[in-house]
Amino acid sequence: MSSSSDTPTGREVPPSPAQLDDLKQEILRLTRDYARHAHRAFRPGWDPQRSAFDPERGTIPYAGRVFTEDEVEAAVGSTLDFWLTLGSEGAAFEQELAMFLGVRHSLVVNSGSSANLIAISALTSAKLPVERRIQPGDEVITVAAGFPTTVAPIVQVGAVPVFIDADPITGNACCDQLEAAYSPGKTKAVMMAHALGNPFDLAATLAFCRRYNLWLVEDNCDALGCTYSMPRQLAESLGLRENSPGLDEGPDRVVRWTGTWGDISTQSFYPPHHLTMGEGGAVNIIRDQKLKVIAESFRDWGRDCWCPSGVDNTCNKRFDWQLGELPEGYDHKYTYSHLGYNLKPLDPQAAIGRVQLKRLPEFIEARKRNWETLRRGLTAHEDVLEFALPTHATGWDPEAGFSWDSSGCRTECSWFGFKLAVSASAPFSRTDLARELDRHQIGNRMLFGGNLLRQPAFVQLRQERPEALRVVGEMTGSDAIMNSTLFLGTYPGLTQAMLERELQVIGNFAQSKALQKAI
Ligand SMILES: Cc1ncc(COP(=O)(O)O)c(C=O)c1O
User: Fold this and answer.
1) Which residue of 141, 422, 431, 480 sits 20 to 30 Å from the alpha carbon of 344, by its own alpha carbon?
2) Ligand 1 mean position to 112 CA, how many Å?
3) Cα 92 to chain center, whole Å?
4) Residue 2, pLDDT score
5) Which residues are 229's β-sheet partners?
6) What's the confidence (pLDDT) of residue 77?
């Protein structure tokens, strides 16, 4: 298409809107063509167009972006529109994520860490009742094993994290320690992650939060698409009666996605997570509209006004407010009710996220399938490897699957990773296994920061300001996680050949070590 032509005066004749649209469509067609060929290695593991894996030389990532030409087209399309800052794609993504989860609002942000910072900051707002507001020196109960930015924001807002231990089998908080962590008049919230896609004990945690009127912030960064269910009677006693959209376990049970049980939850869209937009995250406001306005204010510079970018006067009284010590009629757009941040992503990121969101149901299933393949394939090594169990499960059997405790609560994990621990009696250590996996280019990770209290930043904090944190009991479970655990990938980009290669390498290693020990 010729987009313009020169006139005798030398001025370019602008193309018509129809011609411009043709030009854009042509660019997008070429983009799709390019992406289809250039990015074959990033297609879903089951996609026949995905480039083949070479078991001799191929790398097996533990996680990464999984996408097709659809995401690339969305990114380029939005970039050509060049709105750039959060706009129509962001608004649509927020609505679509909130609808998927069945929460009141989702606010898109630039990372999971930012989401956690906003979530906890929101609970410090002076717009909340004074008895519920987190003030400097108030306490927030959290867990010692996990990712640092679940905890760092608690310190950053001037509150005191109170650490309980983690269970090495589930990777989750030992919720029987919640009571011991409670401090009357000081404890205001519980903030913990569903570790590696394993929901924590929501029944116990919610009962505790209801008993003491505490906020619950679910760090759902690793757990989008995991479900938790409980007997209806128990759910109703905790004030929850609705299933999440599309979920149903019959009239006697309530089943919901993780990230929809507490007050606020957070997501990360960094590439290893259940969906990606490169960098990105979300704050889910589960029920309370007031928390949405506050969280949005912290995301958007701390402003009082809630107009989307590029829009003025949503409140219809832009020049009719008098807040703080500002003169009456001072522009609401430049009125700040919080000490906020600017933690918004770009609109093209949200455009990518919208395409990823459509893939989420099959990504969730792929993670479950991949976990199951690894679990079955490693059954023969139960003498040296200890495998994760979903919260409330008491065992796993290749025929019968999981067995469950008597709580009536159930979890279904869309695993972030395949967690295993090397037994104390094994003739090799966790680090030996990690080295062997590395030697074969098999992606593996430790459970993030291990026991966070042993990380340099927290050691320094404890030394310089002992009152800045509190620890309840011994952190033996978190230490065990730190010392003997690693995880492999379960992400949807893994192919059957990759999973088989992983099983072969681990099997050979365990066998050769057993033989060496026997000689
Ligand atoms: C549990 C948990 N919370 C928060 C984050 C931070 O997310 P982001 O990397 O998007 O900042 C991560 C990162 O992996 C995480 O695992």
Assistant:
1) 141
2) 5
3) 20
4) 45
5) 255, 410
6) 98
As a whole number of angstroms, the distance between CA 121 and CA 291 comes to 11
Residues 6+ apart with CB under 8 A from 186: 137, 138, 139, 160
- State which residues of the chain have pLDDT below 50: 1-4
d(CA 452, CA 204): 23
Distance CA 210, CA 193 (A): 19
Alpha-carbon Rg for the chain in angstroms: 25
Where are the strands (E) in 151-280, listed by range?
160-164, 187-193, 215-219, 227-231, 253-257, 264-268
Among the atoms of ligand 1, which is closest to the Cα of residue 194?
1
Q: What is the residue-wise DSSP string for 201-217?
A: -HHHHHHHHHHHT-EEE
Active-site residue, 381 included = no
142 within ligand 1 shell (Cβ under 6 A)? no
**Per-residue model confidence as pLDDT tens digits over 99-116:** 999 999 999 999 999 999
Q: Both ends of the chain: CA-CA distance in Å?
A: 76
Whole-number pLDDT of residue 308? 83
Q: Distance from the CA of 119 to the center of ligand 1, in angstroms?
A: 13
| Residue 193, ligand 1, Cβ within 6 A | yes
Give the pLDDT score at 4: 47
Give the E-state strand segments of 297-452 in sequence order.
385-387, 393-397, 401-404, 410-412, 417-422, 444-445
Q: Which residue has the tokens 């290695």?
A: 41
Amino acid code (one letter) for 68:
T
Question: Residue 256 to residues 39, 215, 226, 227: CA-CA distances in angstroms?
Answer: 35, 18, 9, 6
Q: How many other CB atoms are there within 10 angstroms of residue 3's CB atom?
A: 14
Phi and psi at residue 243, in whole multiples of 5°? -75, 160
Amino acid at position 424, single letter:
A
157 near 175, Cβ under 8 Å? no
Q: Residue 103 is encoded by which pair of tokens?
A: 């929460």
pTM for the model? 0.97
